[in-house]
Design brief:
By secondary structure, the protein is of the alpha/beta class. It has helices spanning about 5-25, 45-55, 70-80, 90-100, 140-150, 170-175, 185-195, 220-225, 225-245, 245-255, 260-270, 275-285, 290-305, 320-325, and strands at about 35-40, 60-65, 85-90, 100-110, 115-120, 135, 160-165, 180-185, 200, 210-215, 270. Mean pLDDT is about 90; it is low at about 1-30.
Length: about 325
Amino acid sequence: MSAITHNLKYAMLSLLTVTMAIALTNCTPQTNIPLRIGSNLWTGYETLYLARDLGYYNDKPIRLVDYPSGTEEVRAYRNKEIEGAGLSIDQALVLAATQENIRIIAIMDVSNGGDVILGKPEFTDMKALKGKRVGVESTALGAFFIARALEKNDMTAKDIQIVSLELTEHERAYKEGKVDAVVTFGPARIKLLAAGAKLLFDSSQIPGEIVDTLAVSTEAIANNPETIQALVDGRFRALDYFEKNPQDAATRMAKRTKVTPEQILDAFKGLSQPNLQANQKLLDKSDPALINGMTKLVKIMVDNKLLPKTIDPASILDDRFIKNAKV
């Protein structure tokens, strides 16, 4: 065999080896790719950060990314800056109707008083807001919540002056008198109530309608299933820790949210957090509450032009990670 022939065979063998390696790499889920999960300062997402603080994600390629609002999370998701997020269910529905690559993999909480409309101390009820300036975040959830509150009080959007405000502006705008009332939640809710704002309406008056989820892209599910499983496992471990050690958990969460542990615990009273077993029943539809609520929400959103088209809620539920979760 000539040296030229030997070298040619060696070169072809090397090329074949490299080609096969590339092919195998492309076919194998990339579990080492960081899984970027967005969230905002909503109380119901704090158990993700508690999981991180407790070290449940220490050896996992999971990165929690803070955003000032749900609007910014949606933008980041559209721009592929994150692979998933804590999203209100209306935001997940909007993404599903426009991109079709989002899947709900866990229910984080159901708001039961955590979302509020706060007004000046002299206001006695929602009727007092007629002609007044009401700050609302420019999201589907903000529009949905104020619409339902007005509807419940035989009012319409024409009865008030809507002022578009990002979540980070709520507290300052209210205290500086730029608005007479504000639709808010999280630390802003806590601080404004402490400052004397009057509670005019809250999500307990529309039970089961405001749900917060953990949602990820179909691409992340295909490429990073082991990391997503670790994300879900860690979150439910943290929820279990919170239920068994509420004071320590609240102390850990308060550091990030810049409120007191007592205020954090009070904020959690405004929502319910379905445990692992409840999540399994909701996502596999053996408990029809979630799918029924989503169906109702889709209709309300389409009717109010908050959703561009009707979608089947069942098509965006994925229960595989909840089903396999270990706490």
